[in-house]
Amino acid sequence: MGMTYFKRYRMEIPLNRDFTIPQALPPGYSLLPWSEQLLEAHAEAKYRSFEYEIDANVFPCFGEYEGCLRLMREISRRETFIAESTWLLQYQGVDGSAPQACGTIQGVENRQGCGAIQNVGIIPEHRGLGLGTHLIHAALNSFRARRLTTATLEVTTQNRGALRLYERLGFYRVKTVYKVADVALA
Q1: Bridge partners, residue 30, by sequence
Q2: What per-residue confidence (pLDDT) applies to 21?
Q3: Taking phi first (over 0 means left), then psi (-120 to 50 degrees means alpha), and beta for anything else, what does residue 95 get?
Q4: What's the pLDDT score for residue 3?
Q5: Distance between CA atoms of 82 and 36, rounded to whole angstroms?
Q6: How many domains does the chain have?
Q7: CA dist., res. 7 & res. 184, Å (int)
Q8: Is residue 146 a contact partner of residue 115, using CB atoms and an 8 Å limit?
Q9: Mean pLDDT across the chain, nearest whole number?
Q10: Contact 183/2 with Cβ under 8 angstroms?
């Protein structure tokens, strides 16, 4: 094991506009609002979204289902948790199979009174369909409905896809931070 520093950007977006997406979700997909009964589905979506990604090195809890479950419990029990900004993305194919959790986002209000996106995750086989945009816009609109003026998030700079998405949606970098992690060396 060795100590590694991961470069991350803190990014912000003003909430002075409507974030409604003109196009509907692709067929078979639906957004489910937060409910305590969906906690395990959020954990599963988070785990399957991050288990093989760089962020599982930055935040080791992402690399195991139990860690994601603990994290979801911790986030949802915070006084600053915003249930209206926490969404589960679900997919149900036309073959009649059971619905599958395939994306998640959580929101809290930070100490500065901003909406803070905790995690945005889409499992790999559902990426590239604009689903992350739908999750983020749902969270941003609920922050805006609470009369928050700014939303913030952090992204690992090596996560190029997420970084491109956030910049395309209008987030801009406000600070560079470093997260130290104990990583297995090859």
Answers
A1: 90
A2: 83
A3: alpha
A4: 80
A5: 13
A6: 1
A7: 18
A8: yes
A9: 92
A10: yes
Q: Are 41 and 101 in contact (CB under 8 A)?
A: yes
Q: For the chain, what's the residue count?
A: 186
Distances (CA, A) of 75 to 20, 82, 134, 145: 25, 9, 21, 20
CATH number, domain with residue 44: 3.40.630.30
Instruction: Write the pLDDT tens digit of every residue in 8-37.
Output: 899 999 999 999 887 899 999 999 999 999
Backbone phi, psi, residue 161, to 5°: -65, -45
What does the pLDDT average to over 52-80? Answer: 89
DSSP state of 111: T
Strands 150-156 and 172-183: unpaired
pLDDT of residue 184: 56
In this predicted structure, the answer to whether residue 57 has a pLDDT above a threshold of 80 is no
User: Domain limits at 115?
Assistant: 2-183
Strand, coil or helix: 25: coil
Tokens of 116: 């803070």
User: One-letter amino acid identity for 71?
Assistant: L
Average pLDDT estimate for 92-104: 88
